Structures are given as C-alpha cells and as structure tokens.
Amino acid sequence: MSEVKTVALTIDGRSVRAVEGTNVLRAAAAAGIDIPHFCYHPAFEAEGSCRMCLVEIEGLPKLELACATVVREGLIVRTATDLVRDARRAVLAFLLAEHPLDCPICDQAGECKLQDYYDAHGRFPGRFVEPREKRDKLIAIGRGLILDRERCILCTRCVRYLRRITGTGELGVFERGVRAEIGTYEDARVDNDYSGNLVDICPVGAITDTDFRFKTRTWFLERRPSVCPHCARGCAVIVESVTGYPLGPGERRVFRIRAGENPAVNGHWICDLGRAGRRDIDEGRLTAVTARAATGGTVPWQKAVADLAARIRAVPGPERPARIAVVLNSLMTCQELALARRIFTEALGLGGVFIADPPPGSGDGFLLTAERVPNARGVLEAGFAPRLPDLEALARSTEVLIVFGPYLAGNFPAGTAAPALSPIAVKYLFTSRAVPDDGLADVAVPVAVPAERSGTYINVDGLRQTFRQSVAPPRGVPSEREVLVGLAHGLGLNVGEPDAG
Amino acid sequence: MSGQAFRSLPPNDASWHLEAYLARGGYEAARRAVTSMAPADVVAEIRKAGLRGRGGAGFPAGLKWSFVPQDRPGPRYLCANADEGEPGTFKDRAILVRDPHRLLEGMIIAAFAVGIGTAVVYVRGEYERIAGRLCDAVAEAQAAGFLGRGICGTAFGLDVIVHFGAGAYICGEETALLESVEGRRGQPRLKPPFPAVVGLFGAPTVINNVETLASVPEIIGRGADWFTRLGQPKDCGTRLFSVSGAVRRPGLYELPTGTPLRTIIEEHAGGPPDGVGIKAVIPGGLSAPLLRADELETPMDFDSLAKVCSMIGSAGIIVIGDRTPILDVLAVTARFYAHESCGQCTPCRIGTSWIHKTVTRIAAGRGRSSDLDLILELAGGMKGRTLCPMGDAAALPLYAMVAKFRDELERAVGR
C-alpha cells in the first residue's frame, strides 16, 4: 500500500493533519470543527454557490470557500472570527428571506440544514418585509418525489447528482436570478432506480418523498445503521424507526430507510429497491405461530420450536439423515448458517440440506446485483451447497421438513410445490412473511427480518460486514438465531449459545 | 447630436472592408509577427506595452497570455469577448461595426503568440444585427489568406468562429462566457482553475475584450515604447470612452488614459445642457461606483480611479444631471442587477433581488427609516462574497449611491 501523504495546517489555532488533496471543509470536519455548508457534498466537486462555508485564510484578503480550498502545508484557517460569523449570518439572512416559514408542516424539520444552521449561526430577527416570490409548492417530479420550489435554496445537489451519479440528468436549473428554479425538462420526469437519494441529499425540505410526507416528525425517529439485504452488494443503510410515541395497531415502526455511507461499498447512495425495503419490515409480516391443525389460542414460538424438536427426536437417529430435510436461505447471517451447520449437518447428520432463495433479477451495473440475496457467499463459507431439492424425491423419504424463508415454492412452477410435498407428515416453516395457507407448511413460525437481526453478511466482493439489530422485531417474533438455539436446546445439543427461551 | 473623436478607428462608416483596412496598413503587424517574430517575443512586447484589459477588470493582457501553459499537448483557444453588456458602454460595438479587421488582426497576433489554432468571437445576442460585418470580415480575411491554414505563407493557421450569446449580462464574465460557448446555461465557474489553464472545453484559453485585442496590432506595428508614451505609466495607451447621459454630445471618444474625467465631459462631450448641473458621474460602466461632482478632476486611469474607490472598468461614462433624483438612479441600477443575476450563488441571487424590492418600495412612497442602512448591509453581504465578480459589480455601485447621496435618499425615504 502506498503511503498516504498528509500536510499540516492550523484551523482555529489547532494543529491538524489532513490528507493531501482534501479540502479545508473536510480537514476541519475530521478535526471536529463543523463548517456549515449547503451545496458542498463529498460525492461531488466543490460547487461554491451557497457561500455558507466561507472562512478566513491567513494572507488572503477576502473570505475563501472551505469547500474549494485545498489543504496545503502551513495553511492557517480561521472559522470562528467575527468576519466569518457575519458572512454566515448574511447567507442565512438571504436564504431565509425567500424561504417559507413552514417548518411546522415541513417534513425536513428537525434534520434541515437551514433550520440547524439558523439555530447555530443565525438567531437574528428577520428583516425581509418585501413580498416573497410565489412559486409552485407541490410538483410531482416523478418516482413519488415532490418538489417544493419555495423551500428550495438552489444548492443544485439534486441537479449534480442526476448528472454525475446516475447520468440521467432529469433535473436542471431554469430561469435566472431570484426566479431561478429547479425543474424537469418538458414533461420528462425523474425516472431512475436511484431517485430516492435525491431526498437524502436535499439539505432542506424541497424534495420530499410521498412515502414519508406528513407521516411522522423526524425527531421521533431512531436512526440505526444496518446492511441492506435486498441484493448481494450489502449497501450501508440507516433504518429509521419510531421510538418517540407508542404505536397503535398496524402503525409503521420503520418510517424510512436511507442511504448510509460506506466508501468501500455504496459511497453515499442506495437504490430505490433497497429504500422500498422498509415495507418488508412492517407490511405483510407473520407475527404469530400459525398451525393448520389449530386447536385454539396462539402458541408461543418457543412451544412451536420445542414441538419441532420433539418431532425430530421421534425419528430414530440412524434414520434421521434420510427422513429429515432442511431448506435454508441466503438471507441468513453467517452466524445463523454456522448454527444451522452444527445442528443439521454435524449433530443430526442430515444429507438433505438445501438452499432456496428469492429468484435473481438483473443487475444494473451500478449497485444493484442480479443476485437478490445478501449472503450467498456466507452460505458457501458455511459449507452448504446452494442447491434446491428434487421435490418428489424429497416427498418420498422425508417425514420432517424444516424450511427457513418463504422462497421454496417460488423456485418451482406455480402450484406444484404444495401438492408435491403433501406426503410429508411434518412441515415447519420459519418465515417473516405472512404466507397463504397453501399446504406448504403445517406450522408457520414468525421470524425476524434482517433489519431486526444482528450478524454478518459477506457481500458480492467478499467483504464481511457485521451489523447490529437496527429495529426490534414485533413482540413474540424470534430471530432465526433464537430459533436455532432453541432447537439445539430442544435436541439436547450444546451449541455454545445461551438458551434463547 | 452625438460626438466622436477617434485616434485609431476609421473616420467613416464605409471603411470597414478588407480593402480599406489594407490600404491603411492593415494586417502588416500580423504579417510581421507571424513571419519574423518568435511567439515569446510577441508576448514580451505586449507585456512591455503595459496593455491592460479593456473589458473591466484591467488585467494586463500580456501577463494573461503568459499564463497559458505551453508544455501540454492538446488544443488551446482564444475567445474575443464581444458580450458588451456593461450599461453605458458602446465601444466594442464601434470596433465591430467600423473596424472588424483590426479585431481579427489582433486575434491573429494573440493566437500566434500563445500557440492557438481556433478562436471564438462571443458576440452578445443584442448585437446580432450589427455583427454581419464581423462575419463578412471573417470571410474576407479567410479569402485573403489572413485566416485559415498557412497564414502569410507560414505554418501558422487560425480559424475564427463567430458565436452569439442569448442576451445575458453574466455571459460577459469570462467563465460564464465559456459555459455559454459550450452550449450550457451561462453561469460562472468556480475559480481556480483559471481559464488560462482550464478554459473552453477544458483546454487552456485566453479571453480578451474586443478593444484589448484591437489594440494589439498597433502595439506590434509601432512598438511597445510608442504605446507606453501614450497615457499613464501603469495603464498605457488610449481608450475608447463611451459618454452618455446629461451631456451635449454623448458619444465615443478615444483619449489617452489619465485624461481627467472633467476634460472628457466638458471639453469633448460638451458638458451638460444649459441649465443642468452635474450631480454625479458613473466613470466606468454601471458597475463602477459613482463619483460626486467634486471628484471630476480624477484622471481616467486604473490606479487613479481605484484611489477614489471606483474603477475605470469599461470606461463607460454616465453623466447624471442634477435634475435626476438619485433614487431613480438607484432604482434603475438595482433593477438591472436583480434582472441580470444568474441566480447561481446565494448573496447575488437574493441580495440583488432584496435590494431591488426595497428600492421599489421606497420609490412607491412606502420607505422606512431603516431602509438605507438595510441596503448598505445587504450590499455588504454581497461584497467580496459571491462566486463571481458580479456580486461586487452590483454591491459597490449600490453602496456608493447610498453612501454618497445619503441626505437626498433620506428625504426620499421620509417623504
């Protein structure tokens, strides 16, 4: 590895080392000094148009842009002088003059740069008494995005994102002066699979998402990092769930999934598919054990797992390899797969361990991979062959079938899986999704979705990424790890894990 | 009735053709440069002549040429800035109409000096009607072998493209001009890099004002020493002064730099009409902070005007008579900059508009006592803090109007 060259500079009297070629804004941020900015975004070159990051640089007569000034040896920067404060206040005064005071109904409130900077650097009485420009406030620009031109501060992050990152260029700046505004060309709307990032990078509430508009307030949201499970890329995501008030039945827990930052994987972006994954967390969930031969009352998952263990124990040891089969999936974490290996392969000696995944899609050459599971490499690492069962062969010999994930039937022609598996006496399905009562399972046990779990995924490039639970599962829903540990205990196996029950 | 006094421009309107230009010694300087001078010597001669840019900023032309890196492969470009948008300025127009070949000859010499094969004349959209002659002159020069391949029998060649803007003041700013030529929205680029290093289509580019380039043939033809004997030591030669407003003979006057403002107004432009006094003078295009009547002795050169906190700019002199309310001047000025701000950076986009709205309200009789201080403060928020020089171009004159005519404006606000 080549040595990273650094230079020494002074920011607000502090000696700081910064990587050669970086700008003053980032060097200051690395030293814990926040220089306010709107138009600068680390994914793009300096734009220099918002003028919020002006700082003093010794030896230069005018204030200089922290975003556009490259660090050099001996540079002396001052970010907290009267002159700098005055310049920030002036920029805020200009922006706020033409900005509506609709924070109480603005979705960005609470995470708005304009609001935050006014709080930190402004706090002056408004003196704009002229008529404000009237602009369109509810413009559907495509993909569920709403543009509010009165809130827009014309930082052009959105325009630059669509030109430089997606290369689709749907947005541009039209008109000039105070009439300048963001818009689409003719009626060609924003139409690309990475459109949600526009909401993430808008520093104010000018671009909002209909999926989030008016649904909650940002200060109720708990933001936790996770890894996106919707393809093999393993993008960093932020899962934002409500903790600030008690939820009513059917209310959303997770309001948003946004892009996390990971330079080694996704930079600052995620695709719309990953973003829409918030629905998988709250919608269509299986939340209680369901049994075909239900005898009234809900069974806790622990009881269902104990029953399954009893069913397994009922099969004589030597017959287990032939009479018990397991279907796993590539959404399981490395830790869960390792547990599965110890229980099913090593302890029970099963030969029939299969992998059933959601069908592949097509890759887009950017982040989204054709593979639509996050841990296919983890499956291989755990020593499992990614193969599907022959359903008829399986049905001939199997007494107990244990399936993790709702994906098995989807790998066979529609309507064929359930009839084929009907001879099997005991069928347990562990799934996060509510499934139709189609005969595929006698007992369906709810499990957590990836965002509710902790573990490790190995991405398409072999990168191991460990993540922690970003939102708690619904009450009474275990993770697959808990299920496997419970099963091990039920089978009298020591898998080195605490009792999950 | 309008007046004129030219040293270098042909006296009548019919002498713009190549034939007439050749008859008065045209293209001799270009021939001499191309056939018998080294490019570096041409640059040195222009530097020695102390030719400062005639567009507004007054940057030494030879120094600008010398910034172009000569050790990189790939094209280099020359842009002649004919986006004469500065209010009160109409000198480049005269060159384009009366002497387009002199501009082309200056471009040939500049291109030869810097090693450029393609040049663009960026003509403001409002000049499309008068630019026919320029286009004809390009064709004439091409046919006569002064443009195109193998100029004057040498290996040097130059193609000139005439390109029209769409009527935006900001496109006179050199990097906005480049954006416009490239087919994009005309708005300034962040500097550095400067166009001499990264300019048109990313290539090193020289951008000179029309009058600057038109001054080059004489300097090469007669020598830098001749040029420096005209005008002031640090701002040499003659300039075309556009004089408009409250004078008897508004028009274009070519005079040595350093000529006192009063001489230009009184002696050449005939002074104000009977019964009118001079209230103020804008000395260098609207962006130059105005001078009071007691500042008219100021010599019209770069440094002398800097001393009185103004600038020679484009040398567009606007004389404001004492019957003109300064509030009207302020309103027109504020409206212009609000209208022409490209909208890219915050202080200019909203500052110009805010000031315009405030002045409009004062003019409507709804002024507040705090308005003048507010205007000064808003101008202060723009000054030195915008992405391109237009912030200063708007802030400084507005600031000067309020600061220098505070009493009159107080009365206007209070009425």
* Total separate domains of chain B: 3
Mean pLDDT of chain A: 94
Q: Structural class, judged by helices and strands of chain A?
A: alpha/beta
Number of helices of chain B: 17
Q: How helix-rich are the residues of chain B, as a percent range?
A: 40-55%
- Rounded to an integer in angstroms, the radius of gyration calculated over CA atoms of chain B is 21 Å
Kindly give the count of domains of chain A: 4
Summarize the helix and strand pattern of chain B as letters: EHHHHEHHEHEHEHHEEEEHEEHEHHHHH
Largest interface: A-B, 36 and 32 residues
What's the helix count of chain A?
14
**Quick one: CATH class of the largest domain in chain A?**
Alpha Beta
Layout of helices and strands, plus pairs?
The complex is a heterodimer of chains A (501) and B (415).
Chain A lengths: L5 E6 L2 E6 L4 H7 L23 E4 L6 E2 L10 E3 L3 H16 L15 H10 L16 E4 L2 E3 L9 H8 L6 E4 L6 E4 L12 H5 L5 E3 L11 E7 L8 E7 L11 E6 L12 H5 L1 H5 L7 E2 L9 H14 L5 H4 E5 L5 H14 L4 E4 L20 H6 L9 H7 L2 E5 L12 H5 L4 E6 L11 E4 L8 E4 L5 E4 L12 H11 L11
Parallel strand pairs in A: 1-5, 15-16, 15-17, 17-18, 18-19
Antiparallel strand pairs in A: 1-2, 3-4, 3-5, 6-7, 7-10, 8-9, 11-12, 12-13, 14-19, 20-21
Helix pairs in contact in A: 2-3, 8-14, 10-14
Chain B lengths: L2 E3 L12 H6 L4 H9 L2 H11 L11 H6 L10 E6 L8 H8 L1 H15 L3 E6 L8 H12 L15 E6 L9 H8 L23 E5 H13 L1 H6 L1 E2 L2 E2 L1 E8 L5 E6 L4 H8 L9 E5 L8 E2 L9 H6 L8 E6 L4 H15 L5 H18 L7 H12 L7 H15 L1 H9 L1
Parallel strand pairs in B: 1-9, 2-3, 2-5, 3-4, 8-12
Antiparallel strand pairs in B: 6-7, 8-9, 10-11, 10-12
Helix pairs in contact in B: 2-6, 2-9, 3-6, 5-6, 6-9, 13-14, 13-16, 14-15, 15-16
Overview of this protein structure:
The complex is a heterodimer of chains A (501) and B (415). With 501 residues, chain A is an alpha/beta fold. Chain A contains 14 helices and 21 strands. Chain A has helices spanning 24-30, 82-97, 113-122, 157-164, 197-201, 272-276, 278-282, 301-314, 320-323, 334-347, 376-381, 391-397, 417-421, 480-490, and strands at residues 6-11, 14-19, 54-57, 64-65, 76-78, 139-142, 145-147, 171-174, 181-184, 207-209, 221-227, 236-242, 254-259, 290-291, 324-328, 352-355, 400-404, 426-431, 443-446, 455-458, 464-467. In chain A, the strands form six sheets. In chain A, strands 14-19-18-17-15-16 form a six-stranded mixed β-sheet. In chain A, helix 8 (301-314) crosses helix 14. The longest helix of chain A has 16 residues, at 82-97. Chain A is elongated and about 85 Å long. The mean pLDDT of chain A is 94. Chain B is an alpha/beta fold and 415 residues long. Chain B folds into three domains: 18-229, 3-Layer(aba) Sandwich (Rossmann fold); 232-321, Roll (Ubiquitin-like (UB roll)); 326-413, de novo design (two linked rop proteins), CATH 1.20.1440.230. Chain B has helices at residues 18-23, 28-36, 39-49, 61-66, 91-98, 100-114, 132-143, 174-181, 210-222, 224-229, 261-268, 302-307, 326-340, 346-363, 371-382, 390-404, 406-414, and strands spanning 3-5, 77-82, 118-123, 159-164, 205-209, 231-232, 235-236, 238-245, 251-256, 278-282, 291-292, 316-321. In chain B, 57% of the residues are buried. The mean pLDDT of chain B is 95. Classes of the chains: A alpha/beta (501), B alpha/beta (415). The interface between A and B is medium-sized, with 36 and 32 residues.
